[in-house]
Request: fold
Amino acid sequence: QVQLEESGGGLVQAGGSLRLACVASGSAFSLYGMGWFRQSAGREREFVAAISTSAGATQYKDSVKGRFTISRDNAANTVYLQMNNLKPADTAVYYCAADFSLWDTITTTEAGYEFWGQGTQVTVSS
Reply:
């Protein structure tokens, strides 16, 4: 069992940057693949980025490649999402998610994650 709490959201102008953090409580954080998803008004929640248990593999939604970077600090039970060159289309509630995994693999679907945070709002103004 793990509980997740996101932070770092806010209001930023287009072209700006934000760094989201997600702290996990509980044990064995290093056994969880981690992901970030987002949901904007009137739309389905969508995959943004994921990182494997050892950080040996990452994957991104095409529209954020080159702008967003996912990383993790297993000693601090924390996963990050560095977001640069933000666009109004990035406006959404961002959620982190955890997938218990014995393998160093990537999960990109919602169904693949067992635990979710409450989300943090990111608003990008034009």
User: Anything to note?
Assistant: The mean pLDDT is 96. The chain is about 0% helix and 50% strand. The first strand starts at residue 3 and ends at 7. Residues 52 and 106 are 5 Å apart (CA to CA).
